[in-house]
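Q: Predict the assembly, please.
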Amino acid sequence: MKIFREVDVAEIEDMAAGGAVLGTGGGGDPYIGKLMAQQAIRKFGKVKLVRTEDLPDDALVVPVCMMGAPTVMTEKLPQGDELVNAFVALEKLLGRKIDAVLCGEAGGVNSMTPFVVAAATGLPLVDGDGMGRAFPELQMETFALAGVSATPMVLCDDKGNTVTFETVSNRWTERLARAATVEMGGSALLAFYSMSGAKAKECVVRGTLTLCESIGRTLREAKANHGEPVKALASLLQAHNMFEGRIVDIERRTVGGFARGKVILNGTDDWKGHEMSIDFQNEFLLAMRDGEVVVTTPDLISLVDAETGLAVTTDSLRYGQRLVCLAYPCNPMWRTPLGIEVAGPRYFKYDVDYQPLAAAE
Amino acid sequence: MKIFREVDVAEIEDMAAGGAVLGTGGGGDPYIGKLMAQQAIRKFGKVKLVRTEDLPDDALVVPVCMMGAPTVMTEKLPQGDELVNAFVALEKLLGRKIDAVLCGEAGGVNSMTPFVVAAATGLPLVDGDGMGRAFPELQMETFALAGVSATPMVLCDDKGNTVTFETVSNRWTERLARAATVEMGGSALLAFYSMSGAKAKECVVRGTLTLCESIGRTLREAKANHGEPVKALASLLQAHNMFEGRIVDIERRTVGGFARGKVILNGTDDWKGHEMSIDFQNEFLLAMRDGEVVVTTPDLISLVDAETGLAVTTDSLRYGQRLVCLAYPCNPMWRTPLGIEVAGPRYFKYDVDYQPLAAAE
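A: Predicted assembly structure:
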């Protein structure tokens, strides 16, 4: 398989920071993700990256990720072994050697989990993912939109328990795996959506890991050069600056294995006198400015620190933080009727139609 | 394998009625159990019974049963296919032909579920079970007391979903399988505790199915001969008549996948002026007479109709029913320190010590 580059400990920092931005509030704390991946690379060596287009058609590709409420992930640091256990158990179940690891979702932790498996197994890691962002439920994968089944799926916890699913639909996989995850203490590791290289070329969101790295590097360099990190980030992502303000209220609870809630910002600077409220279920799903819906899932809503441009995850929202709300278009696969049905605002019970956001200039 | 008898449609009636008595309120509605088993025997032919002592030491024996709240089982009639699916999936996972089917628990439905699998597969069914009664949780098996692991375990629902468990303890199997069962709608079918014939000889409660049949026949014949069914039943089981009365209050709710509650009887005849209250979690667990604990799990508490002696399950308790409370000793395996730890009153959070009940003369 054609490897286009290798990733070492140093590059991981940028990638995790970038993953957190695309995580749109979910996908886990980048600090934890970074530690997990760096530890694995130190132990097992560099991770080889392969481009989606360079996958052999008959290669067996398996995505991995962590499931659960980010609030729990932060308190219950994954060891990494569980991930490799899930991967190896799925390989055994499939009865065939897996050829490459794939990222299930972009996020602070979940852009990093595949690095742990790739390092431990020595397998190449595909530069891409199944969302181009983070989403709260596991049927919300571009893989699913392309007809790939989430099962056989293996879920492992930190205690050594393994649960294998073979379901009639990806929605059922989500329901049963969510119940198991809650029972396992709120977070679990999984391997799922096994597919061929040919199928991967149809449905992988390409270049996600290198985009994560570009995001992290952009922020780091802007800071180092005393530049404007948020502006540089917005320009890289072709993102709209939707709002700037301070958090005046946060409502947050962990229910049914999700971190759900709402955050309210009072405008500062150009946005003085205005208010923004953003609903989340692990990820930011819907933003309202002065009572009017301005952007919804599946388009991306990232809250970043007004100073540093670093992403703020839903579990690290704190009263008084000064944040900028950036919004930018999702991958076109999410804008199909099926994509909108699976991850649009109505799926989350919001009574609004999805209005595609144009890319900023 | 030495078959000592065959069971046809006609004999099923007595066995299901007897299973419901040993079910101590749980284990499902015998009417449903009977229909499932009779339908399977009509379709596939008679079921061959083998005695535990006649199992070859190297035989592979697999128990099956239904999991869930009896209240749900009654509303959601199992098709039987799910059971066979779980059994076949476990056989595939074990990579070896299963030689005999075993009963996981005695109960109105669960003494019958193994007949469905035995009929459909043509395999012999062991005359025994893993409780000698019914219990609410799946680590409460004499198999577990003898060190057999519940996993690998396969759980199937009526929709076609299959979940496989490989856990670090039987308590964890219970937790994870209960969560999946709740998500699946409150009931599911499973195959678990696979063991050798040699191990089965150590830990199977022997003769349960023929005991169920004797119970059913005793009740049927006493009724036909205008005799006293309850007296005949008590004599057969060496059971104490603890109370006779009418239901004056029932408290019942389905929580966490269990039917939990309490039933209160006001005494009639010899027990006039007295009161009995019985707590249940699927099964009757603790009986108090005039405020004093008189019998607890793991000993058996059966509520039977004062006229017919037929068992009343926790989900069919109705205001005004005239019932007799019978109590009789559990299998000695439950009276070991481990047995009491696993299924004694303190496990269910009752602040009383287990006092072994003597057999009635």
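The domain at 3-208 of chain A is CATH 3.40.1610.10 (CV3147-like fold). DSSP finds eleven helices and 17 strands in chain A.
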